């Protein structure tokens, strides 16, 4: 896990060692983990050290990707929301193949579901892992999503059982996959992703919902009402990122 800093460090520093141990021993559910935003820095740096740009990668300029790669190699300092989003062209380039996607998925699941250095308890008993299915020169959006789901299912088969103290709090599943819709997507692509999710759910694959994510300054959530309705009609969960930055009012009728 990354080092604790800022308000989090101040909060945990105010606790006694016994209180910290008590908190660590509690079963926890992580309900807001973004796959590409939770990749351990060591894995990103390793991928960046061997990254070779493809001539068919035309979604962003090579200069933007290279700038992000250099920042990842040097270590990341995030002061404003824009600093975070400017890294994503590089992160997306690094995770544009099924093999790389499998690797980062396992790395993220390791971070959340394996015991940490402080004891035998896992960081979390349950995690909802959300990710935006992307079409790249190496895979379709459906292959992207199937790769994440298959990797999670294979991972869970090898995962050590929960400690007895946490078994009573565990759900039937340890991982729930959520497909994200980026706010900069066209409505056509959003509908394509939702149709893929519905199809995978009908196949019995372990996908629990759909998420609206991305730069909160982009788009208008009111325009996607029919898409959200289709998600709910399919019996899927729905989670929305709206009104996350100051001076940006977003209104939406929740279904």
Automatic annotation (TrEMBL):
InterPro entries: A_deaminase_dom, Ado/ade_deaminase, Metal_Hydrolase. It catalyses: N(6)-methyl-AMP + H2O + H(+) = IMP + methylamine. Residues 27-245 form the Adenosine deaminase domain. GO terms for molecular function: adenosine deaminase activity; metal ion binding. Its cofactor is Zn(2+). Keywords: Hydrolase, Metal-binding, Nucleotide metabolism, Zinc. GO terms for biological process: adenosine catabolic process; inosine biosynthetic process; nucleotide metabolic process. Pfam families: A_deaminase. Belongs to the metallo-dependent hydrolases superfamily. Adenosine and AMP deaminases family. This is Adenosine deaminase domain-containing protein. It comes from Leucocoprinus birnbaumii.
């Amino acid at each position: 896990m990354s080092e604790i800093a800022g308000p989090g460090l101040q909060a945990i520093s105010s606790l006694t060692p016994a209180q910290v141990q008590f908190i660590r021993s509690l079963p926890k559910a992580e309900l807001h983990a973004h796959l590409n935003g939770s990749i351990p820095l060591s894995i990103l740096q390793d991928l960046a050290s061997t990254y070779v740009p493809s001539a068919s990668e035309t979604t962003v300029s090579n200069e933007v990707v290279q700038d992000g790669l250099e920042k990842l190699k040097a270590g990341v300092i995030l002061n404003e929301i824009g600093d975070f989003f400017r890294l994503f062209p590089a992160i997306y380039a690094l995770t544009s193949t099924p093999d790389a996607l499998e690797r980062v998925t396992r790395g993220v699941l390791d971070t959340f579901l394996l015991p940490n250095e402080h004891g035998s308890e896992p960081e979390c008993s349950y995690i909802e892992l959300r990710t935006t299915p992307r079409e790249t020169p190496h895979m379709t959006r459906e292959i992207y999503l199937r790769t994440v789901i298959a990797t999670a299912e294979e991972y869970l088969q090898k995962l050590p059982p929960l400690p007895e103290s946490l078994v009573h709090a565990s759900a039937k599943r340890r991982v729930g996959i959520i497909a994200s819709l980026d706010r900069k997507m066209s409505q056509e692509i959003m509908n394509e992703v939702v149709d893929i999710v519905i199809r995978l759910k009908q196949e019995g694959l372990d996908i629990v919902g759909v998420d609206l994510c991305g730069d909160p300054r982009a788009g208008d959530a009111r325009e996607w009402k029919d898409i959200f309705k289709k998600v709910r009609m399919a019996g899927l969960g729905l989670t929305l990122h709206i009104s996350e930055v100051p001076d940006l009012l977003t209104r939406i009728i929740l279904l």
